[in-house]
Every structure is written in structure tokens, then in C-alpha cells.
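Sequence only, no structure available. Ideas?
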Amino acid sequence: MEYKAKKVHFIGIGGIGMSALAQLFLDHGAHVTGSDRDASPVTELLEKKGIKVIIGQKAENVPMDADAVIYSDAVPEDNPERTRARELGIRQVSYFEMLGKVSEGLSTGSGQGRKTIAVAGTHGKTTTTGMLAKILKDAGASPTAVVGSLVKDFDSNYLHGDSDLFVVEACEYKDHLLKLLPQVLVITNLEWDHTDYFPSLAALQETFRKAIERVPENGTIVTDPANPNIAPLLANAKAKVIDYTKEPAYTLTLPGEFNVMNARAAAATARAVLPNITDKTIKNALKDFHGTWRRFEYKGKTKKGADVYDDYAHHPTAIKETLRAFRAKTKGKVFVAFHPHLYSRTKDLFEEFSAAFTDADEVLIAPIYAARETDDGTVSSAMLAEAIAKNGVLTRAATFAEIENELEAKPRAGDAVICMGAGDIYKVADRLVACGK
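Reply:
I predicted one. C-alpha cells follow.
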């Protein structure tokens, strides 16, 4: 099988999931190479670990003797490296297909596959996955973990483990969740998202219903069974359902009620996996958890002394909850630079976005991050800025250069700036802090 390949090339290796999988292959003795369009903190991490990363995608990047080529979902079939792999007769596998194969069959030495713990849901799955991995690690369970961001406690998005426990962040987009066959399925919460693939909440729920019903009878589902979007999906579950909301509120360094809920989900899952784990181990692990890259991450100060944060929030609920926590800890003004992600999401959730910024004093909206989509002219950052402004928040659309200039000039000591979105808005935060040094 492909996971036993000794020479593997990754196209789009800088992707957060792809980079973790690359580290896993390296960990298991494979020679790993990869390419990506741009350098990033993730590609820098891979280079430090000894993985050769080529910036720019060309046919000659593919080693002629590669056993397998793994490609990111964002890499099209006509990509020059994928074309070259076909010409060479090299087997190509998508990231999520390979992740499924790894979770099914990667031997731990006993000849048996790993026990997969998949963390899914609309919000909080990255933080919950990181928290769970840390709890299990601190408990001595030695899990392997693939997380959707760089975890500060591991200095990576990958955690090496020697046991049969495989903790993985699972994404529902394009039914990728269904590539996995977890023994433990965690569903943090559920709202309509990935609107370019799921035409409705009901369509999204159907994917989660299938995932729930695939968990075996001797498995476990950890979720909030009272959540109205989740409750009806549990009717035909074979596995035991554990209500994570019954866990206590743990002391955290991370702010926000949403992180309290993430911690509850992680703690309940740890108890399901390790029945003998102590309350003390869970409490200490969560208290010491330092968070992940781009999740309420403190970056430093601007030249005028304003605090700068960066956050991945790109769904209206995540934005609203993050800003609520941000407002509670900020004495001065709150300035937000938001990078909308996808035309489809911005359009389908437009009303929710327009009401999500009420805890901000000023908001700057960057041009919509197109990613895999094209602009059909039906929605824009200017339209969104106008809608937010109608809800009483000073808001305007701006270019990245204008955003940087304004956030350098206006916020002062005691104020706070937060850059939000799934695109490359984090670069603004980095530059603001670099100018402040």
C-alpha cells in the first residue's frame, strides 16, 4: 500500500494537512520531497525537519523514482507535476485518501492498524484536536496526531507517537470526513458552512449522519446531543454517545467561552479513550495548553504600542464569538482587519457576516479571497462593508496596503488589532509587528 512508500512527493506540501502527513511519512522512514506555490511558516518548518521543499511547481520537481505522489485538494488535475507523474506512471493519491489509508493500515509494530480518533465540526476542531493530543501525550499515551494548525506545545502540526492512538482533525468539505473510519468520532458543533459544496444545512447534516452511523458499535461518539443541528443525526447511531457538555469548565490560558467548550470536548474524549486518566492530568494539560497558530494568537505590538492578534475565524459565528472574547479583554478600541474567504461563503452567509462585528470599533474589509472560485460580480468586500456599517460599526473596504497603513497610524497603546480570516491576512499582522520592532 502507498503508506509504505519509501519515496514520496507532495504537491502542495505547504498545506496544513499535507505538511503534517509529510512529517508522518518522514517519521516512518520515507524520503520526502514536496513543492508549493509560496514559502510560509509551514514550509520553513518542513525545511528545518529535513524535507526538501521547492517553491514553484514545475514538471521536473517530481522525482522519476517516486513511489507515490500525494496532492492537495487545491491542486488541479492539469497541474504540471500531476501531469508529469501520470507520464511516469507514478501512483497519485489525494491527501484525504491517503489520510484514510494511513488511519486504516499504518502498522504500529503489532501488525494492526491504529485506533483513529477523528475530531470534526464547524468550529473549534483544530483547538480541540490540539488539546486532546496534549492531554493524551501528558497522560503518557504517546498518540500520533495530525492537527490543522501549528500547535505551540509541539512546535508543529504533527506529533510523533508510539502507541496505536491516531488523533486526526477531520474536515467535512467534499465529504472528506467519510474517507476515515474512526473508532472515536468527536463532533464539536454543527452549522452550515462550505456552501460551495453543501447547498444547505440539510446536505451538510447528511454527511455527518453517514459519519455517525459508520462508527462501530464498540466505538464512541463525543458531541453535544442537545445541539439542534446534531440531535436528529444520532437516531441511528450504533456507538455509545458521550455528552461533552457535562464536563466542568476548565481553567485555560485561552480566552472565550468557545474555548471552554473545546476543552470540554477534548476532556470527554480523553476519558473515553483512557478510562483511567485522572482529573489532575486533564486539568494540568489544559491549563498549560498554549494554543495554535492563527487561533487568537498574540503577535506583538505596532509602532504606536497597540497589541496585535491573528485569528483564523472565517465563519460568522466564529468571528462573533472571537470578537466577544476580544472585547472582554481589551480596554481600548478594537480594530479588525477581515479577509473574507470565498465568494460563495460571503454571499450565502451575508446577513450573518453583516451582524458578526458588533464588538468591534472599526473594521477594514480586504478584497474577498477567491481561492478555488471566480468572481461573478454578485458580492464584494465593499458590499459587505456597507452592510456591517448599517449595523453601527465604522467599516470600509480597503486594499491590503491601505489596511496596513491605517492600522499603523490609528491604533494606540491600550488599543488592540486583530487580523481575521482563512486567507493570508496573517501577513498584515506580521508586518505590523515587524514595523513596531
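The first strand starts at residue 7 and ends at 11.
Hope that gets you unstuck.
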